[in-house]
Design brief:
Blueprint (H helix, E strand, L loop, with lengths): L8 H12 L5 H8 L3 H14 L15 H12 L5 H8 L4 H12 L3 E2 L6 E2 L8 H13 L4 H8 L3 H14 L20 H34 L20 E13 L2 E12 L5 E7 L4 H14 L6 E4 L8 H9 L3 E4 L9 H15 L7 H17 L11 H11 L1
Parallel strand pairs: 3-6, 6-7
Antiparallel strand pairs: 1-2, 3-4, 4-5
Helix pairs in contact: 1-3, 2-3, 3-5, 4-5, 4-6, 7-9, 8-9
Length: 405
């Protein structure tokens, strides 16, 4: 079967190259073509793996060997890379394809050589003693169904069902009573058939739930690709400027009659002299706000390669932001979930302008509020004395180091 896309291959190549050249973001590319951003990401992966020709309409589906499928699945499960990395490494066109292989592998299925498909393993015939032995081994190994399935060459579902029946009914739950009724008893009643049908449907629903849980877990792991460890580890001391930077976004409100409006302030703080390296204000808490703040900081401090710490906001976990950090040789650090104190000095800074300037006033228009924030940050950097800085302002403390260096 051929692969024919509604989008012209030339257009695909053009949009991918614009993205790789940083001329356009995923959101804008998706909006321009009227397609989901996931499709753009898929084109990018294909382009990086196979070059521009990979985006041409394919005359037939691509075939993958069994060895390649097993290697790709093992690499992913062993943490050798993200879905993107594994697809790029093995030339796999789609995340969906790799996810299917992982699902089949984890459920005890057989990966076959074809256009990417897979077949489920045929149920293994076992005796009561064999089933009892497998259950005992499984219980002794903390219900490691996958390991037992591999060891005894049966499916994951078989082992799990045997253990469940054993826990509910003991060894009698492992007896195979299919088609074995006492000769004197009548045929199965409609009620019995209905009951068995319900049990069968419940089992299928459980299987589907397990598959969905697996796919959800895989997607969660994929979303964690850009979540960094807490390398700062609450060590808020720095020996020199541009050694450690903290960042965050905070909201401010102004009022127009009965309407409440918000603006967002993004700032970067240097832990050595506690100065605000740079800041940006926007009506939207989005990626451009954070990217523009970072870009301006790099322009002001082109030789800076600090440890860059933030919370786990969506802007900081985005691929676009992580690429910027790598480009400028900065190591990323992130606070743990629900641990605001991991970014303590930055959180503390927000309290200073809000307490000394914002809360004591009522702002009725956007321009006045932005001017007040801008003036205060200038005052904070250049006029506000701090005991931690030997009763100097952040800029005085900064300049003192530069002169002594």
């Amino acid at each position: 079967m051929s692969r024919k896309s509604k989008i012209d291959p030339i257009v695909k190549v053009k949009i991918v190259e614009q993205y790789l050249d940083r001329e356009i973001g995923l959101g804008q590319a998706s909006k321009n073509l009227g397609v989901a951003y996931q499709s753009i990401r898929k084109w990018i992966s294909i382009y990086q793996c196979n070059g521009p020709t990979g985006l041409l309409n394919q005359p037939k589906n691509k075939s993958y060997s069994k060895a390649l499928k097993i290697s790709a699945v093992n690499d992913y499960l062993n943490g050798a890379g993200s879905l993107d990395d594994i697809c790029l490494k093995y030339g796999i066109r789609s995340h969906t394809q790799l996810l299917k292989w992982i699902q089949v592998y984890n459920s005890g299925g057989i990966l076959k050589t074809s256009t990417g498909g897979a077949c489920m393993k045929k149920v293994k015939s076992t005796t009561l003693d064999e089933r009892l032995k497998i259950v005992m081994k499984c219980l002794a190994n903390d219900k490691n169904y996958g390991a037992m399935a591999l060891k005894y060459q049966c499916s994951y579902q078989q082992v799990r069902n045997w253990v469940k029946r054993y826990e509910e009914m003991g060894s009698k739950g492992l007896e195979d009573r299919r088609g074995r009724r006492v000769g004197s008893l009548p045929s199965r009643t409609p009620e019995e058939e209905l009951r068995d049908r319900i049990v069968e449907l419940e089992r299928k629903n459980l299987d589907l739930q397990m598959e969905n849980d697996l796919l959800k877990k895989v997607r969660e792991l994929e979303r964690r690709d850009h979540i960094a460890k807490n390398y700062l580890h609450r060590d808020f001391h720095a020996d020199k400027p541009n050694e450690k930077w903290l960042t965050d976004v905070s909201e401010f409100k102004y009022y127009s009659g009965n309407e409440v409006h918000k603006i967002y302030l993004s700032a970067i703080l240097d832990l050595y002299d506690r100065r605000i390296v740079t800041f940006k204000i926007s009506d939207h808490n989005d990626n451009p706000l954070v990217m523009n703040t970072f870009d301006e900081a790099v322009c002001l401090e082109p030789d800076a390669h600090p440890l860059f710490h933030s919370d786990r906001g969506f802007q900081y976990t985005s691929a676009q932001f992580c690429t910027r950090l790598k480009k400028h040789h900065m190591k990323q650090s992130m606070s743990r979930v629900a641990h605001c104190i991991d970014n303590g000095p930055m959180e503390g800074f927000w309290g200073i302008p809000k307490r000394e300037m914002y809360y004591c006033q009522h702002f009725n228009d956007r321009t006045t509020l932005i001017a007040a924030i801008t003036d205060y940050i200038h005052y904070y950097n250049n006029q506000r004395l701090q005991r931690k800085l030997n009763v100097m302002t952040p800029m005085e403390y900064h300049d003192q180091y530069i002169k002594a260096a």
